[in-house]
Amino acid sequence: MEKATYIESVFDLARMIPYGRVTTYGAMADFLALGSARMVGWALNQCDFESGDVPAHRVVNRKGELSGRNYFNPPGRMQQLLEVEGIEIKADRVLDFDKLFWSPMELLIK
DNA sequence: GTGATGACGCAGT
DNA sequence: GACTGCGCCATCA
Length: 110
Hints:
Blueprint: H1 6-15, E1 23-24, H2 25-32, H3 37-45, E2 59-60, H4 77-84, E3 89-90, E4 93-94, H5 97-100, H6 105-109
Parallel strand pairs: 1-2
Antiparallel strand pairs: 3-4
This protein binds a DNA duplex (13 and 13 nucleotides) through helix 2, helix 3 and strand 2.
């Protein structure tokens, strides 16, 4: 272990996602300069979101779909967590995704 | 060492 | 506007 790879960077960035907001794999990949959104998805797959350290449920794909909900335990937990934060989910998609979308670049602005 | 896979994204058709 | 194919980089078999 102790790889200290980009995985930690992805986790750290995921923790920075504001409450009630969501971001995309591509945005995180671009901000972390991973080179591909797949890396973000793969990295989050290693996440221990059940510990509450990594709110992976706030990370969705470019369409705002909960593409990774099936990887949660149980499936649907992702949607439930988002609804608790005031984010409405319909057909595994984030409503008002355009307004709820949060870009890591806002960290630089602030 | 090679091939296949993956919580994606984009260009081309 | 929807579908298909390719690229991205790292891990697993």
